[in-house]
Design brief:
The protein is an all-alpha fold. It contains 1 helix and no strands. The protein has a domain of 33 residues. The model has no long low-confidence stretch (mean pLDDT 82).
Length: 48
């Protein structure tokens, strides 16, 4: 039973940590991928 509780807690903690890391990364790099002055313009070229 202790192993099951540890496994669930481990999974929950890591899920929350990865979500927080992803949100922080998006907040930091938002100017690179979005907006008028974006640096990575070639990533969003539409197919004609």
């Amino acid at each position: 039973m202790r192993y099951l509780i540890f496994s669930l807690l481990f999974a929950i903690v890591h899920t929350v940590a990865y979500m927080a890391a992803g949100m922080a990364t998006l907040a930091i790099s938002k100017g690179i991928y979005e907006g008028r002055g974006r640096v990575m313009d070639y990533l969003f070229v539409t197919m004609k």
